[in-house]
Amino acid sequence: MERLRLLEDRIFSISTFSEFEQIALEVFDFQIANCEIYRDFVQMIGISKPNKINEIPFLPISFFKTHQVGSLDNSELVFKSSGTTGMERSQHAVLSSEVYERSFLTFYKQRIGSPEEQVILALLPNYLEQGSSSLVYMVDCLIRESQSSLSGFLLNAIEDLEYRYREALAIGKKVIIFGVSYALLDLAEKGADLSKATIIETGGMKGRRKEMSKEELHLEIKRGTGVEYVSSEYGMTELLSQGYSQQNGYFNIPNWMRVLIRDTNDPFTYVLDGKTGGINVIDLANLYSCSFISTQDLGKIEAEGLKLMGRFDLADIRGCNLMIQ
Fold first, then answer.
1. pLDDT (tens digit, 9 = 90+) per residue, 261-275?
2. I want to staple 127 with a disulfide (CB 3.0 to 4.6 A). Which of 133, 227, 232, 301 is the partner?
């Protein structure tokens, strides 16, 4: 285990692409040896040992619905995706909560700021109802890190949210609001002035409202709350790392995470930057499950970062994801 602890430290210390590629290939070797379903998949498609990251096979994300995807036994946590009634939920067995917390806390502090300087409010009713949510786990940890009695999960108490917002500003705290799409629309329709808050939309109408594009959604939220822009979180049950969108809608991701864009007609071919295709994610924080995931999202890489373009047709809607553009 000492060797794995050292590997964890190296993962979260990555600063260059060459470091990333070297460690990714080491993680591939470890997961081929220890993750049975990933090893079977790689053998089935006949891929030999890769020498660079674009030669690494990516496990289809649907395997998290049908198989136990893990590189070691004795998982500490099991996260489940959100879903509508009757929908099969993905499951992600997490060996180490410490690795997950290290991943999301490190990048949150880099992109959003220090929780100790913030009041963190959460409008995540459907995730709370269904339970076993990685998003709820993350936000709960951030709330505790804020060390503020004003931080917390709120359901439909809009007046309470406005009160906490005003009190936070009065004592010089920044306000961060995490919210599912329909809850943020409910909030916007109340016309509350939240112009100094940072709103992070986590996706998910879940049949509560009509689907709309991300631009339409963010425009409605901006109109109703007065914020200059709405950020988004790109994360999912199957990954232990997240990206956050900037004001221009492009996503930044941590140094231990990479996105490759595959051809929509040939999953083993990659497209040039600026071209839309399927998103393959390397998340080295997934050390103890599978770090190489072929998602059902569409996107493209441009100079500004990752741009989400929607989802493949006939793909079921999954939790912790953005609205289709």
1. 999 999 899 999 999
2. 133
